[in-house]
Amino acid sequence: MLSESIDYPRNGEDWVKTVLIGGVLTLLSGLIIPMFLVIGYLLRVVRATMKGDEEPPVFDEWGDMTIDGLKGFVIAFVYSLVPALIAGVFGFAGIMSAVAGNGSQTAGIFGGIVALVGLLVAFVLGLIAAYIIPAALSNYAETDRIGAAFDFGTLRPILTSGKYATAWLMAFVVLFAATVAISILNVIPFVGFIIGTIAGPFVTFYAAIAAYYIIGRTWGDLHDIEMMDEGGTTGEQPAV
């Protein structure tokens, strides 16, 4: 599936146009709306691949895609909120402990330990959230209900399956490899930095498509979702 995921973004006739649009939107994601569009597109990838469609979606129906991406962002934000809050609470407690100690070395050490423990706990919870979010987005993509993203009765057997864990690791490897490639380019003085800066958003978007191809295919396998055939009709996908 790893090699298939790398080839997947190029399966469509308009794949260059799609990657160019996605790369520009990724570059402009700090403007919020472009970020929603990228998330909305990735949700389309999940919907298509969970049904066995081997051709990537295109950018169209921009309003619907924006709203879909906004919902996806809310889902990811909610899951990320707990680690962020814990990090903030422990960090604040560490600072206040040091301040209350009037600058004493013992208070400073204690405050530092509290802050460090908070960061470690937040890091672990952040990893858990990162593991859950793709499955949560997939359940939302399948049902079009935000509540489904928090339906742990449905999510639990997926999250505890070896197939999903393997798929998540493969998706992580794809994204990590893209990050490493961009970082290597940025190390090269001047020219490499410019090329890496320009190419980075496009490489990142391409890798995200490949990663969510893996997630969508795996979700479809585990949920026995109907597959699309070449004529656009559906047929039952064999259970895995």
TrEMBL record:
Keyword Calcium: no
Pfam families named among the record's database cross-references: DUF4013
Domain of life of the organism encoding this protein: Archaea
Transmembrane segments: 20-43, 73-95, 107-133, 165-184, 190-215
Any coiled-coil regions, as ranges: none
Keyword terms, alphabetized: Membrane, Transmembrane, Transmembrane helix
Protein name in UniProt: DUF4013 domain-containing protein
Originating species: Haloferax mediterranei (strain ATCC 33500 / DSM 1411 / JCM 8866 / NBRC 14739 / NCIMB 2177 / R-4)
Organism classification: Archaea, Methanobacteriati, Methanobacteriota, Stenosarchaea group, Halobacteria
